[in-house]
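Form 7-S
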Amino acid sequence: MISPQSDPPTPAVELAKERNRAAEERTLMAWIRTCLALISFGFGIERILTVLHQSAGDPPMPLRLSRILGLSFVVLGTGAMVAATVDCQRQLHRIRHNDLSYNPRRSPSLVVAWVLVVLGIVAFVGIVLSPLGR
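Output:
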């Protein structure tokens, strides 16, 4: 880690740090919107399909694919929110302490994208294998 210099901060450096901080907060806000959409989508899937099954007279089945899929979206959104918050705090700490070294890291967006691919495949297989009319 690069130690802070003893020279007084220059306006250019301080403005660059402020731009980076603002960019990090915009990124966190985008993650919050994405995570809220995932959580809302999962809750919506679970609730709507539960009501449809109940109105059709089906007995309650706690582990239907729709319930698992809906809860998976809620868990993914919540987990992504935690990861984005921790990542934001880590990046803000680096900005405050002038840690300008590049540290490669796993992209939270890429992780969420791969989990969504897996959830999509599970949903597709579940729809294909489910009997028609149910």
